[in-house]
């Protein structure tokens, strides 16, 4: 783990992983209902890294350009959530979601729409679960599709200060015989991250009680 | 897998491991007897149902918070529970357990039950620990790929070896992205359904984090499963071995190039040797021809001498005799040059001041060149003397100057320079690392191409029109330089000019001007009649020599070979002098002289030869007579021989 991830303690990381896991499980359940095939969602690996590092983490894995679904959130802590796919993957995902009945030409047409919908399900599940588990409420904007390299994706969204950090969740979407994988990234500035940390501590105190 | 499973069958198959069933809505925990056994609980009480807090009771305090958080996630709707943690048994033993469970949801995604299986993995943990240590200590990264999937399960060391951010699972594309050669993938992609033939391979990669080029070896096995396969293997860094291999290859390549270089040098040396051998052969041939020619000229010259004496004085015949004699003398001069090339001419060796010599002949050279050419003399000051033959040296300078003139038909400046060269070996391969004087004649004329330059010192090679040159000039100078213990170099660039340089050894301070023995001019031709034995294998020469001797008033015996001569000496004890040719078949003049000396140590001997070099071991008392000789030279040699016999050293 990189030195930048010291912002979160081990238990805090566990707690956040678990919370996101709940959200991802819900999203997977929804996806499974949509795709009707075996979907394997890995337990998310969580890191708090700089935007530059986040961009490298993805570019290390993905050679092609990327497609991202973006939703901004605000509340006690605010930021931006991204669901990122390799571009070559997005049609596969849309194809899987639409059940293979739709012709390829039509797929391209409805790709953005379908991606927005898929992104909304997954991001909503994660954010809503986080809000719920941390006993706070978050408001979210409508999803929006972005395209570009990993660097441009993170630069595009880097309107906050240079020091803004990324809560980076890597989730492997493995669907047998389909090359589908994706990443979830939450970009938060330091004050938001501090608040998230406090809220996680509250959650841990609640769950662990005297054992902590 | 996330799909709901038949819980009962799973736990039955697991055997001794414990199972649990957590009723979320009623908050009751059911556990089986094995679970109860591990936790040190009464099976009866366990079957009846327990408060859910019991689940955490036996968990090691250090692991408990983490497990509480995970369970909280499950109860809130997370699907999967998969954790390793320690429990402390009633007996106090610490065991590693793997808890695997999942949440059963209602149709509305409401969590209903949390069921799972608890397996003792203490042994596995130890094995894993050993494996982890083996991997990190050995620098070995492991991977497992199931065909059809886009991802690969990898170890931390695997990621480190490729310079990737450590992750338990990596996309196939990420792994193959580090490859520098696109010949074969490190891990086959999901579209690649062909089963690789072998897992053993080596790959050149650029490490993702620092971009360093490394070599990675892959080893492993392909495990067939139905129509598909699993690829299980390891990778490790073989860069050091590869580098050594490359170094070794480079060494062997370098060795090859060095061998090629040496062969080239050798070929060059062989070429130089061949050239030298050719020159030597040409020299031998030239020397041989000149020698024979010398003999013939001798016959002509001595016959002319005698003829003039015997014919009454008549201007008409005298003119004819003069021109015949001049022709023969010019022929003799030519043979001298040929012998010079063959390094067989007679040379005097004296201390010569080069600058004085060249300055002294300036007028001669300028007159020879003509008005269109300017002579420019450049000499270092205080040049040491050289050991050379001044007459030959003058001829060489004149010859070179004429060549320079001919190279500049429109006129120009000819430079004659003399410089001290401290290390002769740097200038010419045959010279020693001692001081030499470089005497150069430089023109800015036509120059020579390489082919002409290579042949320039061959005798009879000439670029001048037929009849304009003998082709002996440069070869003679070459021979002269070598006979003097020096060297001759020619540098020429076509269209730019030529620099011809004679390298002459510097005379050491102690060396005296050594002149060849010369007959004192003041010897009076006052000899009694002698009984002389003349030996020559060539009848014509013998006849002439005899005629010359008889003309001088001597009694002459003739012998055509050394053997014949020995017999005659035995028969004539009153013999006064022996005159023998040097070059004879079977017995040479010196060999004959040695045999004669055994019996008649005081018999004066004259050795007639066209060669300047006498074989080693030649007796010092023997008087040498150069061929072709005149009657006068013959007479003086006889006087010298008789004198040295009369006054033994």
In short:
The complex is a heterodimer of chains A (212) and B (649). Chain A is α+β, with helices and mostly antiparallel strands and 212 residues long.
Taking the sheet with the most strands of chain A, its summary is:
7 strands, antiparallel
From the coordinates shown, what is the CATH architecture of the largest domain in chain B? 2-Layer Sandwich
Number of domains of chain A: 1
- Output the CATH topology of chain A: Chemotaxis protein chec
Verbal overview:
The complex is a heterodimer of chains A (about 210) and B (about 650). Chain A is of the alpha+beta class and about 210 residues long. Helices cover about 50% and strands about 25% of the residues of chain A. Chain A has one domain (about 5-205): CheC-like (Chemotaxis protein chec, 3-Layer(aba) Sandwich). Chain A has helices spanning about 10-35, 50-60, 85-95, 105-135, 150-155, 190-210, and strands at about 40, 45-50, 65-75, 80-85, 140, 145-150, 165-170, 175, 180-190. Chain B has 5 domains: about 5-120, 2-Layer Sandwich (Beta-Lactamase); about 125-235, PAS domain (Beta-Lactamase); about 245-340; about 350-505, Heat Shock Protein 90, CATH 3.30.565.10; about 530-645, Response regulator (Rossmann fold, 3-Layer(aba) Sandwich). In chain B, strand 10 and strand 11 form a beta hairpin. At the A-B interface, helix 1, strand 1, helix 2, helix 4 and helix 6 of A face helix 4 and strand 9 of B.
Layout of strands and helices, then pairs:
The complex is a heterodimer of chains A (212) and B (649).
Chain A: H1 10-35, E1 39-41, E2 45-50, H2 51-61, E3 66-74, E4 79-86, H3 87-97, H4 104-133, E5 139-140, E6 144-148, H5 150-156, E7 165-171, E8 173-175, E9 182-188, H6 190-208
Antiparallel strand pairs in A: 1-8, 2-7, 3-4, 3-5, 3-6, 4-9, 7-9
Helix pairs in contact in A: 1-4, 1-6, 2-5, 3-4
Chain B: H1 7-14, E1 18-23, E2 28-31, H2 33-39, H3 43-48, E3 50-51, H4 64-75, E4 80-88, E5 94-105, E6 111-120, H5 122-138, E7 140-146, E8 151-154, H6 156-162, E9 169-171, H7 172-176, E10 201-206, E11 213-225, E12 228-237, H8 239-310, H9 315-341, E13 350-352, H10 354-360, H11 362-369, E14 373-379, E15 386-388, H12 390-407, E16 412-421, E17 436-443, H13 450-455, H14 473-483, E18 487-493, E19 497-505, E20 531-535, H15 539-551, E21 555-559, H16 562-571, E22 577-581, H17 589-599, E23 605-609, E24 623-626, H18 631-646
Parallel strand pairs in B: 14-16, 20-21, 20-22, 22-23, 23-24
Antiparallel strand pairs in B: 1-2, 1-6, 2-3, 4-5, 5-6, 7-8, 7-12, 8-9, 10-11, 11-12, 13-15, 16-17, 17-19, 18-19
């Amino acid at each position: 783990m990189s030195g930048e991830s010291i912002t979160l303690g081990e238990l805090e990381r566990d707690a956040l992983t678990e919370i996101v896991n709940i959200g991802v499980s819900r999203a997977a359940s929804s996806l499974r209902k949509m795709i009707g095939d075996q979907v394997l969602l890995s337990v998310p690996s969580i890191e708090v890294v700089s935007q530059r590092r986040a961009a490298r983490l993805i570019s290390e894995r993905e050679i092609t350009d990327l497609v991202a679904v973006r939703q901004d959130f605000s509340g006690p802590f605010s930021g931006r959530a991204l669901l990122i796919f390799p571009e070559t993957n997005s049609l596969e995902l849309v194809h899987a979601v639409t059940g293979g009945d739709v012709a390829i030409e039509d797929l391209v047409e409805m790709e953005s729409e379908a991606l927005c919908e898929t992104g909304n399900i997954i991001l909503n599940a994660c954010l809503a679960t986080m809000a719920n588990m941390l006993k706070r409420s978050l408001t979210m904007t409508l999803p929006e599709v972005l395209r570009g390299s990993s660097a441009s994706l993170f630069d595009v969204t880097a309107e906050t200060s240079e020091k803004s950090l990324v809560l980076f969740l890597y989730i492997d979407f493995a669907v047998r015989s389909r090359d589908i994988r994706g990443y979830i990234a939450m970009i938060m500035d330091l004050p938001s991250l501090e608040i998230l940390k406090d809220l996680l501590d509250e959650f841990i105190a609640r769950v662990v009680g005297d054992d902590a | 897998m996330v799909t709901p499973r038949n819980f009962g069958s799973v736990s039955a198959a697991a055997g001794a491991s414990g199972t649990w069933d957590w009723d979320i809505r009623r908050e009751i925990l059911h556990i089986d007897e094995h679970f109860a056994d591990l936790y040190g609980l009464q099976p009866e009480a366990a079957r009846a149902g327990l408060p859910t807090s019991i689940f955490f009771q036996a968990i090691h305090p250090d692991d408990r918070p983490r497990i509480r958080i995970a369970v909280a996630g499950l109860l809130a709707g997370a699907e999967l529970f998969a954790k390793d943690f320690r429990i402390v048994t009633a007996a106090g033993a610490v065991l590693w357990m793997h808890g695997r469970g999942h949440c059963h949801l209602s149709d509305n995604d409401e969590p209903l039950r949390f069921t799972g299986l608890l397996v003792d993995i203490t042994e596995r943990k130890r094995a894993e620990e050993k494996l982890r240590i083996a991997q990190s200590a050995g620098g070995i990264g492991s991977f497992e790929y199931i065909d059809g999937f886009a991802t690969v399960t990898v170890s931390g060391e695997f990621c480190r070896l490729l310079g990737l951010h450590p992750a338990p699972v990596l996309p196939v594309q990420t792994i193959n992205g580090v490859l520098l050669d696109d010949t074969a993938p490190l891990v086959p992609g999901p579209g690649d359904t062909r089963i690789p033939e072998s897992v053993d391979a080596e790959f050149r990669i650029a490490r993702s984090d620092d971009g360093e080029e490394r070599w990675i070896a892959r080893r492993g096995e392909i495990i067939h499963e139905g129509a598909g396969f699993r690829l299980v293997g390891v990778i490790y860094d073989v860069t050091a071995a590869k580098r050594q291999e490359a170094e070794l290859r480079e060494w062997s390549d370098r060795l090859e190039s060095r061998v090629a270089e040496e062969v080239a040098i050798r070929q060059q040396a062989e070429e130089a040797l061949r050239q030298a051998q050719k020159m030597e052969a040409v020299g031998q041939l030239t020397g041989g021809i000149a020698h024979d020619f010398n003999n013939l000229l001798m016959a002509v010259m001595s016959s002319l001498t005698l003829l003039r004496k015997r014919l009454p004085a008549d201007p008409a015949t005298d003119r004819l005799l003069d021109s015949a004699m001049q022709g023969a003398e010019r022929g003799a001069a030519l043979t001298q040059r040929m012998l010079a090339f063959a390094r067989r001419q007679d040379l005097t060796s004296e201390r010569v001041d080069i600058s004085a010599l060249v300055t002294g002949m300036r007028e001669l050279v300028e007159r020879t060149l003509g008005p269109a050419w300017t002579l420019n003399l450049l000499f270092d000051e205080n040049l040491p003397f050289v050991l050379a033959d001044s007459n030959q040296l003058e001829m060489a300078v004149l010859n070179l100057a004429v060549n320079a003139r001919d190279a500049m038909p429109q006129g120009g400046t000819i430079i004659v320079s003399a410089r001290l060269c401290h290390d002769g070996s740097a200038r010419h391969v045959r010279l020693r690392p001692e001081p030499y004087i470089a005497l150069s004649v430089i023109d800015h004329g036509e120059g020579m191409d390489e082919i002409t330059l290579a042949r320039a010192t061959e005798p009879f090679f000439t670029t001048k029109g037929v009849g304009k040159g003998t082709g002996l000039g440069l070869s003679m100078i070459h021979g002269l330089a070598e006979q003097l213990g020096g060297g001759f170099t020619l540098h020429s660039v076509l269209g730019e000019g030529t620099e011809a340089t004679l390298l002459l050894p510097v005379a050491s301070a102690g060396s005296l001007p050594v002149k060849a023995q010369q007959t004192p001019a003041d010897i009076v031709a006052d000899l009694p009649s002698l009984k002389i034995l003349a030996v020559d294998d060539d009848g014509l020469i013998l006849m002439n020599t005899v005629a010359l001797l008889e003309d001088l008033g001597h009694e002459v015996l003739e012998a055509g070979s050394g053997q014949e001569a020995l017999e005659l000496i035995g028969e004539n004890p009153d013999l006064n002098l022996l005159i023998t040719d040097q070059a004879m078949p079977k017995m040479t003049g010196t060999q004959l002289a040695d045999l004669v000396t055994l019996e008649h140590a005081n018999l004066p001997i004259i050795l007639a030869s066209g060669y300047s070099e006498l074989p080693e071991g030649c007796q010092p008392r023997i008087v040498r007579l150069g061929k072709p000789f005149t009657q006068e030279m013959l007479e003086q040699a006889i006087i010298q021989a008789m004198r040295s016999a009369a006054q033994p050293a």
